[in-house]
Design goal:
heterodimer, A: mainly alpha, 0% strand, B: mainly alpha, 3 helices
Chain lengths: 297, 66
């Protein structure tokens, strides 16, 4: 068995066991964040299985599922679970406002950028107006809304975005003749997708949102518990989860910079770190030492 | 009638129980230093990664194959 088959297979086993434990926890405790995490992890696991399959043969459906589940949606859905967990707390609300402020500014000035403004000016305009829009978004909506309402609105946006991404990836033609079973999908997907496909421009938007919510949420939980001097297991567990999310975000960014060969190893490391963090955060010693569920997991 | 801590008998907020609520690991100097260091490290790394991703998205950095 080759490395490009073994690595994603190992990742998928870890992630699917992780997803099963999270969904079993949801069946017992009924926290909506657990359900959303479970969905995100299933997407991650399905993408890893698609990678393992693609080391043996080409199938367009498998490729589309890999791109949709792994490259576009999994980080955002896992991060969305954290939004449900922490909605209402001040810092996470500010983070969400920043994400939407910068998303709005980016969309606006990329459109204006087509009018002939230089890249540097567009970047400076986005940097300034992102903060302005974030402050406005926080004051007008986030601060006034009930936490549950905020989480529901964000989930509705994520579902709508996911459907658009699914439509885009299932409606574009693929060039299967460029597929090489001996290479990682992340190292050759650009040649298989048509040049300039819109879905590729959507991918960083989902991933930036997922990274900010997942890493930010886990670090916020760890910091909160560390400051209160309780539940060290949850503190360490959350740091491991944040480190895992950071590793997968780094690997994804490397793919965008043309270094796709490292993605499978990054996925395995990220899966191992996040799963270890989950096990540590939900261990008996951790849960008996703390009375707060807001610690994550 | 009050106990040694000056609280009524049966009070759960004695200094002994307050100490027992703090796990040993929390009092370790290594834990006190390493946790904030790890939080700052991961947060800084994430900001750099996000900045790179945003730079690719905006076209400041080249997107291979585009």
């Amino acid at each position: 068995m080759s490395t490009i088959q073994l690595l994603p297979l190992a990742s998928s086993i870890i992630i699917l066991v992780f997803a099963w434990l999270v969904l079993r926890r949801y069946a017992v405790r009924r926290g909506r964040h657990l359900l959303i995490w479970g969905i995100g992890l299933l997407l991650f696991g399905a993408a890893s299985l698609a990678e393992a399959y693609s080391a043996t043969a080409w199938h367009p459906l498998v490729f589309r599922l890999w791109y949709l589940g792994g490259a576009v949606l999994s980080a955002a859905w896992i991060g969305q679970g954290t939004v449900y967990l922490l909605a209402g707390a001040r810092l996470p609300n500010l983070l969400v406002s920043l994400v939407f402020g910068y998303a709005t500014a980016t969309a606006l000035f990329i459109i204006l950028g087509r009018l002939g403004l230089s890249t540097g000016i567009v970047a400076a305009l986005i940097a300034f107006h992102g903060l302005v829009f974030a402050a406005a978004f926080y004051r007008m909506f986030v601060r006034r809304w009930h936490p549950q309402r905020l989480a529901t609105v964000l989930t509705a946006l994520l579902v709508a975005g996911s459907l658009v991404a699914a439509y885009l990836i299932f409606s574009i033609p693929l060039d299967g003749s460029r597929f090489d079973a001996g290479r990682a999908l992340s190292a050759q997907y650009r040649e298989i997708l048509p040049p300039g496909a819109v879905v590729r421009k959507l991918t960083p938007v989902f991933n930036i949102y997922g990274t900010i919510t997942l890493v930010g949420g886990a670090l916020y939980s760890a910091w909160l518990l560390w400051r209160k001097e309780i539940a060290p297991h949850r503190v360490l567990g959350n740091i491991l989860i944040a480190a895992g999310a950071f590793v997968i975000a780094s690997a994804s960014t490397m793919v965008r910079l043309g270094l796709g060969d490292y993605l499978y190893a990054g996925e395995l490391l990220a899966a191992s770190l996040m799963f270890s963090g989950f096990l540590l955060a939900t261990s008996k010693a951790g849960s008996t030492a703390s009375s707060t569920e807001a610690a994550g997991a | 009638m009050r106990n040694d801590a000056g609280r009524p008998p049966g009070s759960t907020r004695s200094s002994r129980s307050a100490r027992a609520a703090r796990p040993a690991l929390v009092r370790s100097p290594l834990y006190r230093v390493l946790v904030p260091a790890a939080v700052v490290l991961v947060a800084s790394g994430t900001v750099i990664v996000l900045a790179l991703a945003a730079a690719v998205l905006l076209g400041v950095l080249p997107y291979p194959g585009r």
